[in-house]
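Budget justification note: compute hours in this period were largely spent on complex prediction jobs such as the one shown. Inputs:
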Amino acid sequence: MFTLGPIGFTTPALLLALLALPVLWLLLRAVPPAPIRRRFPGVALLLGLTDDEHQTDKTPWWLLLLRMLAVAAAIIAFAGPVLNPREARPGTGPLLILADGTWADARDWPRRLDQIAALLTEAGRDGRPVALALASAPPTGPVQFQGAEAARTGLPGLAPNPWEPNTEIVAWAEAQEGPFDTYWLSDDVDRDSRADLLAALERQGQVRVFQSPRPVYALRPAQIIDGALTLQALRAETGTPAAPEVAVIGTDPNGIERELARAPASFGATDTQVDLAFDLPPELRNRVRRFEIVGERSAAAVSLTDDGLKRREVALVSDRDSTEAQDLLSPLHYLRQALTPSADLIEGALTDLIPANPDVLVLADIATLSQLEEKQLLEWVANGGMLLRFAGPRLAASDISRVTEDPLMPVRLRAGGRMVGGAMSWGEPKTLRPFADTSPFAGLAVPDEVRVSAQVMAQPDPALAERTIAALADGTPLVTRKSLGAGQVVLFHVTASADWSSLPLSVLFVEMLDRLAITSGRVDPGAADLAGQIWVPEQVMDGFGQIADAGAMPGVAGEDLARGPRSATQPPGLYAGSERRVAMNVFDADRPLAAASWPSRIAVEGLSSAVETLLKGPLLMLALILLLVDILAALWLTGRLRGPRAGVAALVLAGMIVPQDAPAQTTDDLALSATTEVVLAYVITGDARLDEMARAGLVGLSQELTRRTAIEPAPPIAVNLETDELAFFPLLYWPVNADQPLPSAEAYVRLNRYLRTGGMILFDTRDAGLGPAANSSAEARHLQFLARPLDIPPLEPIPHDHVLTRSFYLLQEFPGRHNGPEVWVEAAPPDAEQAEGMPFRNLNDGVTPVVIGGNDWAAAWAVGSDRAPIYPVGRGFTGEKQREMAYRFGINLVMHVLTGNYKSDQVHVPALLERLGQ
Amino acid sequence: MTHPAALRAGAEGLAAALPPLLAQAEHLATTVMMGEHGRRRAGMGDEFWQYRPAHAGDPAHRIDWRRSARSDQHFVREKEWQAAQSVTLWVDPSQAMQFAGDGRHGTKADRAGLLALALSVLLIRGGERVGLAGFDLPPRRGELQLMRLAQAFVTPAQADDYGLPEARGMLPHSRAVMISDFMGDIAPVEAALTKAADRGVRGALVQVLDPQEEDFPFDGRTIFESMGGSLRHETLKAGDLRDRYLHRLAERKDRLAALARVTGWQFTTHHTGESAQMALLWLYRALERVR
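Corresponding output:
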């Protein structure tokens, strides 16, 4: 490749054409702009006139220059100029393209794919067999070299993994035979296996390394320190200050993910780690789902949170008969001490606490509950609350759960309880038995000093064994639990104070509460916490940090999960155990992030920021622009930009420049026009004639409404069921056409919402009153199809005392262009009765959501632009009377829609009676 | 006797071309209020002029018995003398009149024909005789003459670039109207006018010009050709010619005006961009003035 400074040319021979430019100069110079021929009778007067100057018989120099530049740009463009041309990569023989394929690759994965594609192209040109491999997902067996085109087919399937390569890839590389060169797209993150892998690959042949200059960032898991959410942002390279932003993502009260907070992670020039603290209110903090570095597409830039971040709300029910006892004797004192650091405590009376919907509710030695309290508690527990009860003298003395099991007690209790090891009893105070494997306390160490000297005793029961989660050395249950609905009830058979046992004094008490998911605050679950359980992934991250449902991924044993690192079987994500969920992030609390270092013998590419850029396109563009300018200049020179045809030229120019897109009408316009005034609306049926009739009908009705009543509607609006919001319209007129397409499912959802929230649809089958019951006309049958998905209540023909008969005019029939017998509305409730002496029944509240008829009302209402009726109704005066009645029905209908059952109010009965009597 | 079908076909073919022009001309003519112009003296005519005592020698049928019955004398009812004038039109049929400029106003020939026909409508309704210069269509009166005139105005243009005024066929002491752009050689115009003036013919010259001819809005390298293509002039900067062209045009107008003054004619310049009604009014007044 011929290079000229930073620019190389792919076909430098074409540059010789530049030599022809001077010739072109002379040629162009000799040819003046072409004249225009004009027919002009005044030429007789022009004869004999000569030009003063002889300037334009040669092309002006600047126009020449313009044209030369255009031609030169085109010539140079076709010579294939390349800015910062890449040196050809030497080498023959098989080539292994190895990408690390980790989360750190995800930040510029498309560019890496481009790089691989370029390598494949080059290898294809050189005839080298190639193989593609991801270090994070090493292939099995010997490497399969194939043609570049065949290898290219596997390219789109490559995706970075959210984990890192382990020793498998080293073993795989060492097992390969035969020389091959390696092109290693490194992810720029230091790890132990890198040196071994490099050594193994160098044994096979030459190794070249590509690294991206883009910085690597990572987030550690968040912790709560002093009430603030704290986490560290890491980066691999140092040297320049940087401030990527970290966003806190969580759900809003409606369950929609939103950004809750955002702060910059300001790295100084030498920093590799920055501490971030987000001080959020507890309500917000409990909703935090994850932290992420804004704009960074990488699994390490996302830090998931789990239950550990939630501060639980624990309600302590205080004693009702407040004694003057000292604090240390209060059963709640030890609970407060244990819970305060990690949970939000609220105290108060039970009925006050339940509406606050705490996570845990503690009843310490409270035996009897009022019926209301019990009902509320049951409901709360069934909805997922956790009721934690402690025994005590009062519970022991009460009869609760004695004979039959109380729903709010896990077991039945014997009367009285027992005392062991006291002055008046046999035996020693009991120690605790080690926790069973099935117990949620499994794995907790039992301190020797914990002694239990008194407890309430559970009645032997078939279910007792499985409900016991902690027991004394002699086998009597110490802690029992049962689930109730979505929640659970846990009973400690000892007091929450140190009266009956030394348990509340020991660290075990705090740990047990923790296991019961009462307290939290630790972020990094220790190996001991994870051990002994199977953790099932709920949500997993891919290499880009996208969170997806885990689907049917198998569970992971806690020990494996704790040991790490993340791999294909345990990708980063959210894992659910029996009690809680833990977040497994790419980075744990102490893993360092460092940039990879390479021996000096390895050539590292890609660090220079100069990117190979093809200049052909821009140059051709330049040539084109110059030619366009030349056209303009030539037009101007020859006078075509002025004079009679200038308008045409200007029009063409404007057409070239102005982008031709008309702004789409937004729904806001519809909303504004529909809500600033009352407006009637009709459904677009797709039949232009019918739509026009509906529009004209509503125009006529609006006109009569304005003339006769206080309702002054704006011109009617056509409503497209598929796209328009319906909520703005009080009344929809829907003429039914036999070949109208059915609305989509979404449109039906909107229609049903419209009907439920007080809208009304007037269906008009226009079939001369062969109403829907008659089932005879095509329109009526189509109406049945149309209305089937609609939420329509039972219907009946308008009864004589329906509010439609007297909402403005007193009517008993409802004619349109036809005068059919029946118009159907929502049926009155069956229990509506006519009171003695009243002409009308006490009918249902609200507005009928549908009115169905076939009287072709729009045709009777329709007026043209001259405000005269369009369609004939009946004959002569009778017809005009029928049209008048149609208008009256329309007015009654709109009144009914807008005023509801106001006229049904019996207050108006005397006045109406008086009028009826006249 | 002509076969009715052939007659009808011919009539329809004729009418197809005529109505637009005729209708336009009639429309234009209605804008000018006019009545029969009397001679202010007794003579042949329809309008009442005066009663005069009957002389001996008056034939008995001329005595107005109704008037005579009111007195002892016999009266004769005299009518105003309404003599018809002959008006000869010449409309330039040359190619130059086909120039339409930027196409917004129609050709000059259209406007000239319209003006001539509208004037004919007015004159014929006024009882005058109207004809074309030359011997093809001598002056006559009546609606049929209108049809003939219209037919003459819609005939295609001649091949000549510039029209030669026609002064033949003009009756002595009649009136004449010449409508042209007068862009061609001035000498034939001079000759024709002089010849007409010698025979006592008075009239009006109407120069119809396109706005482009008046403005010369051209620039750049241009080859100007006459409408027939017989004349051509090439220029490199048309914009520079504008002033000199306008000067020559003004000279031409002055020349025509002077010629008209000498021969007792009227002269005006009309642009196709202007309303035809103005020109028609002017023409009508001009003919009245010389009458």
